[in-house]
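ok trying this again, last paste got cut off
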Amino acid sequence: MSPLPGFILVVEDSDEDFDTVRDAARRAALPQEIRRATTGDAALGLLADWERENQALPALVLLDLNTPGGDGREVLRAVRENPRLRALPLVVLSTSDNPRDLDFCYTSGANAYHTKPVGYPAHLAVLQQIFHYWLTAVSLPGGVQLSSTP
């Protein structure tokens, strides 16, 4: 399968973790642009703007749970409650290994949950695996990565 077009929305407040995402994307030679929101509210605002303006939606959303200004749990809930956004691939990448967070995310419709490794090399490897799987190996519903038009 060839890589999906579009972009990746990263909801991440840590500059260091975001830099690791960019490094992993560069090493994986991803054609997708990386776009960032540092708060849950900002992520929801971007998604609402793109949806309202009928712009392209992300090919993948990487979501940190513990962001300021509306956390990842609120983003997950809102995305899964919106019929036009519901099919977006949404992968949680959190420092939390709390079973309640894991259960909440899967119950709320997350496609995957990964606990962020502490060290840079391990974090980089996890991100590269996520990118490979979600952007090249898996089949997604038509239109998810290209347009918000139903």
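PB: full thing came through this time. Helices lie at 15-27, 40-52, 72-81, 99-107, 120-137.
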